[in-house]
Amino acid sequence: MKLLVAEHDPEKMRRLAELLKNNGHEVIRATSCQTALTQLRRYRADLVLMDVQLPATGGYVCTRKICALAHERFIPVLLTVAAGESITLDAFLDCGAVDFMDESIDPHLLLAKLSGYERMSDIHAQIERHQLRTHHEVQLARHMFQTFIDRSPTDIPAIKHWILAAGHFSGDLLVYERTPANELHILMGDFTGHGLTAAIGALPTTDIFFTMSQKGFGISEIAAEINRKLYSLLPTGKFCAGILARFSPQHQQLEVWSGGHPPVLLLGEAHQVVGEICASQFPLGIVNAESFDAATQIVDLSVVAQVLLCSDGLLEAQNAHGELFGERHFREALDNPQHKEMHLMEKLKRGLVHFLDGMEPHDDVSILTLTLNPCKATAS
């Protein structure tokens, strides 16, 4: 091991260095806290032996500085205490040291402690290597995943959407596509769980959605094909609560297939709820093709200004006090007089971010708004 010895007494330093070198360790010397910090920046020490009575700063303060300098790297600090001096427990716990021993130092005890910390350092090094490898794999997988998912057209001003992931990957899926008849297909899916295990199901689902939408298939046919694929691929207990919607600008109609998903909300000019489309089928991937219900609901949009789709992660978001965002905070976000001229999407985003107050959501949050008249995106 490479050991940094911070000791102000030359004779104790000599004895310690001789003992450690004779047992195969490399010794880096420091007689003050400033020297110890400089040596740590220059060399990658595996452990620090710290004299509690180090001049100027003292061993406790210097240990705190070492722990701050190390950041996420594990550098155990072993305090040495003068004979007869009682260590202050609060100071020991606060400074970040891992252990302490009498400065007279029994060689057998010291070497036994070092052997234990060497094994601990090896374990931490393995964890660091694993974390770095995992980080690179996650970055690559995220890039490939986003490349595959981000295929929705970017020139549709009527649509705004936002996803707040609870992990590296979102288990929510949100895509849309034009059809040959110049209608708009929208898919919002919420796979069980979150993170990579939930996101995997999004790949075949997305491929089916885009391919069939571009070929002019209806949403009932797309829903049936996605269900067939997920039923064959996903293990028992895994499924996708989903909404498939078709918007026809020519006829001002909205056709919806909904399975296990929160209602689609139909909003008026003042963002008041004028109607909703509730889920009427099982989520995708639960029942086989013969039992699947592909029936859709069609609604007239003549009195509707905006359509809102959101995953259950929005209403079920919890703050630090365990309070749910729920209907009350949802309504407050829409009715906030300070945000009167904001777009519906921006109102909900600001309301949720303020509610969470820096906390990460425990579940993925997805929101999509469809403005029927893009020129009137804010409340009147």
Terminal CA distance: 71 Å
Could you name the CATH homologous superfamily of the largest domain?
A: PPM-type phosphatase domain
User: What percentage of amino acids are in beta strands?
Assistant: 15-25%
Described by strand count, sense and barrel closure, the largest sheet is: 5 strands, parallel
- CATH top-level class of the largest domain: Alpha Beta
Provide mean pLDDT, rounded: 86
CATH architecture of the largest domain: 4-Layer Sandwich
Total individual domains: 2
Please provide the ordered H/E string of secondary-structure elements: EHEHEHEHEHEEEHHHEEEEEEHHHE
Number of strands: 15
- Low-pLDDT runs: 375-380
Helix-strand category: alpha/beta
Shape from CA axes?
A: elongated
Order of the strands making up the biggest sheet: 2-1-3-4-5
CATH fold-level label of the largest domain: Phosphatase 2c, domain 1
**In angstroms, what is the radius of gyration?**
31 Å
